[in-house]
Design a protein that fits this description.
Layout lengths: L11 E3 H4 L7 E3 L19 H15 L9 H8 L5 E6 L19 H20 L7 H4 E4 L5 E5 L3 H8 L4 E6 L27 E4 L3 E4 L20 E6 L24 E5 L11 H10 L16 E6 L9 H16 L3 E6 L8 H12 L3 E5 L21 E8 L16 E6 L8 E3 L8 E3 L1 H19 L5 H10 L18 H10 L2
Parallel strand pairs: 9-11, 9-12, 10-11, 12-13, 13-14, 14-15
Antiparallel strand pairs: 1-2, 3-5, 3-6, 4-5, 7-8, 16-17
Helix pairs in contact: 4-6, 7-10, 8-9, 10-12, 11-12
C-alpha cells in the first residue's frame, strides 16, 4: 500500500477568478482524499484477453461500458497495454459537477493551477517513493492539456494510480488507448473508396450540371433550397483527413451555383497534415457542403456554406489514445471558432470516454450544434449499440435508414438516436448515397450513419442560414417539429427522417 501524499495550500480563489461555479463559492487548491479509499490492486494485472472479456460482458449486461462500472483492478490492468496512456481529469475538490461550465474554466490560474501542479508533483514523488527512477516531466506526461483540466500520463504504477484514484480532486482515471480486441484489425476502417458500379437510377441532374443523389428526395433536401442554402454558415467537420487532389474541396469549391465567395479551411490535431489518403472525410465534406457544380459531380446539401475541416483521427473508429485526444482537441478548436455553427462527426467509439465528453461539453458550452454518427457496423462490431460521442446527450445522434424505413444494413440504432436520413436502397445495401471521390468528378457510393450525419449537418446549416442569429436550440427545434415522427418517437430511430424543406420553411415563417 502506498503512502498517500497530500499537498495542502492555504490559498483559495473566488470562482470568478478561477472560472468555475457560483459567485459565492471559494475553490480550494488542496488535494483531498475520498472518504473511503480503495486498496491497491494485489497480484498481477489481468491479461488483455481477460480485460476484453470483462469489458464485453459488462457492455452486454448494461448496454454500455464505462470504467467507473468496473473494479479499479480492471482499469489498472487495461492501462498496462497499448501505449500505457492514462488520462487524469482533475478539479478542485469542492468544484462540483463542471460539465456545464468547463468552457469557462481558466486552468492556468488560482485553485485550478494549484491542483494541476500538485497532481504532477504527487505522481513524480510517488514514483520516487516506490523506488522508480526519477523521470523527466516530458517523459512522464504525454499531453498536458492547455484548455481542459486533463493530464495524460504514461503511467502504470499501481500504487501511484491508486493514490490518484483516492483523491476527490480526480474526476476520472481512464486507459486512454484501450481498444477491444486486436487493434490491427481495424486500423483503416472506413477509409476505402467504394468500387460499386454507378446505377443511373441513383441520381438525377440538377442545375447547373450537378448530380442530385437519389436519397436527397426522401428528406426533401431540394425543397430546402429556397433559402440562403447555407450561405454565411460554417460547418465544422472532424474526420480522418481529406484528399488534397479533390479540387471540389479546393480551387473549385466556389464553382457553379456555389460561387458566392465561400471558404474552405483546414486544420489538424492528429498527424502532421489535414490531408491523407483516407477518403472518408472527403466523402463527408462532399455530402455536407460539396459545390452545386457544372462539372457533373454530385452536389452537397448546403452548397453555399463554408467548410472548416479538422483531421482529428486516423480512421472512423476512435481506438487509440492519439485519436481520442485528437478529436477532443478538435472539439476545443471548433468551440473556439466563432464562425463554426455546426460540428459534424462521422466517427466514434463503442466505449464511453471521459476525455471525449470533456471535449463535447466544451464545444457544446460554446454554442455549437454537435451532430454525431450513431455507428456503422463492421464484422467485429455487431454487439455495439449507439457509439460515442453520438450517445452523449449533448450530441444530436443520427443514423441511416433504407427506403422502407428500416435501419440500414450497417447502421446502429437505439434509444439515443435523434433523427434519421434515408441513404440506402431497400433492395441493395451497396447502393447508398453518393458523394465526391478522392479526386475527379465521378460519384462514389457512401453509406452508413456516417453519410446520414453529414447530410443532417447540411440540412441544419440550410435552416440556420435563414437567420444566422438563431440559437442552436432554435435550429434544433425547427428540425424537431418538422421531423417524421414528431411529436411521437420511435424507440430505435428517434424522431425519424429529417424534412429539409419543411424545416427551412418553418424557420422562414418565424422571421
Amino acid at each position: 500500500m502506498s503512502t498517500l501524499i497530500l499537498f495542502t495550500y492555504s490559498c483559495t480563489k473566488k470562482c470568478e477568478e478561477s472560472g468555475s461555479q457560483g459567485l459565492n463559492t471559494e475553490l480550494s487548491g488542496e488535494l483531498k482524499s475520498i472518504d473511503r479509499p480503495i486498496a491497491v490492486p494485489k497480484g498481477d494485472p489481468y491479461t488483455k484477453a481477460q480485460v476484453d472479456e470483462i469489458v464485453k460482458r459488462t457492455h452486454e449486461s448494461n448496454g454500455d461500458f464505462r470504467w467507473e462500472m468496473a473494479e479499479f483492478e480492471l482499469t489498472w490492468s487495461a492501462i498496462q497495454y497499448g501505449e500505457q496512456a492514462v488520462a487524469v481529469g482533475y478539479q478542485p475538490h469542492n468544484a462540483g459537477d463542471i460539465s456545464e461550465s468547463i468552457h469557462t474554466i481558466n486552468i492556468h490560474a488560482g485553485a485550478w493551477k494549484e491542483v494541476h501542479d500538485a497532481i504532477i508533483d504527487l505522481v513524480v514523488q510517488g514514483l520516487k517513493d516506490n523506488g522508480r527512477s526519477p523521470l523527466m516531466t516530458n517523459d512522464l506526461i504525454i499531453e498536458d492539456d492547455q484548455t481542459l483540466p486533463i493530464i495524460t500520463f504514461k503511467l502504470t504504477d499501481k500504487n501511484v494510480l491508486t493514490t490518484l484514484r483516492n483523491l476527490k480532486n480526480v474526476r476520472y482515471i481512464e486507459p486512454l488507448d484501450y481498444a477491444y480486441g486486436d487493434l490491427s484489425e481495424r486500423s483503416t476502417s472506413g477509409c476505402g473508396e467504394s468500387s460499386q458500379a454507378l446505377n443511373t437510377s441513383d441520381y438525377t441532374i440538377t442545375t447547373p450540371n450537378a448530380l442530385l443523389p437519389w436519397n436527397f428526395a426522401s428528406n426533401n433536401i431540394a425543397e430546402s433550397w429556397n433559402s440562403p442554402d447555407g450561405q454565411g454558415i460554417t460547418i465544422g467537420i472532424i474526420d480522418a483527413g481529406i484528399n488534397s487532389s479533390q479540387t471540389l474541396l479546393g480551387s473549385q469549391f466556389n464553382s457553379g451555383e456555389s460561387n458566392v465567395g465561400r471558404t474552405v479551411t483546414t486544420d489538424f490535431t492528429f498527424g502532421n497534415s489535414a490531408f491523407t489518403s483516407c477518403t472518408h472525410g472527403t466523402s463527408m465534406s462532399g455530402l455536407a457542403v460539396g459545390p452545386k457544380n457544372s462539372l457533373g459531380a454530385t452536389t452537397g446539401v448546403s452548397f453555399k456554406a463554408n467548410l472548416h475541416f479538422i483531421r482529428g483521427c486516423e480512421d472512423v473508429v476512435l481506438n487509440k489514445a492519439s485519436e481520442r485526444t485528437g478529436v477532443k482537441n478538435a472539439l476545443v478548436k471548433m468551440g473556439d471558432r466563432n464562425d463554426v455553427k455546426i460540428v459534424s462527426m462521422s466517427i466514434g467509439s463503442p466505449f464511453y470516454s471521459s476525455v471525449l465528453e470533456d471535449g463535447v461539453n466544451y464545444a457544446h458550452g460554446k454554442g455549437k450544434m454537435l451532430m454525431a454518427a450513431a455507428g456503422t457496423s463492421f464484422s467485429w462490431t455487431s454487439w455495439w449499440g449507439v457509439v460515442y460521442p453520438a450517445a452523449l446527450t449533448k450530441c444530436v445522434a443520427v443514423t441511416g435508414v433504407k427506403e422502407n424505413g428500416n435501419t440500414c444494413s450497417s447502421c446502429h440504432d437505439g434509444s439515443q438516436v435523434d433523427f434519421t436520413i434515408t441513404m440506402e436502397r431497400s433492395s441493395n445495401s451497396n447502393r447508398n448515397s453518393l458523394s465526391i471521390g478522392a479526386s475527379g468528378t465521378s460519384p462514389k457510393y457512401i453509406g452508413g450513419s456516417s453519410a446520414a450525419t453529414a447530410i443532417a449537418a447540411g440540412i441544419a446549416a440550410n435552416v440556420w442560414s435563414v437567420n444566422p442569429n438563431l440559437s442552436r436550440d432554435q435550429v434544433y427545434n425547427y428540425l424537431l417539429i418538422t421531423s417524421q415522427n414528431y411529436p411521437g418517437t420511435n424507440s430505435y430511430l428517434g424522431y425519424g427522417n429529417l424534412n429539409g424543406g419543411a424545416a427551412v420553411t418553418a424557420a422562414q415563417q418565424a422571421l
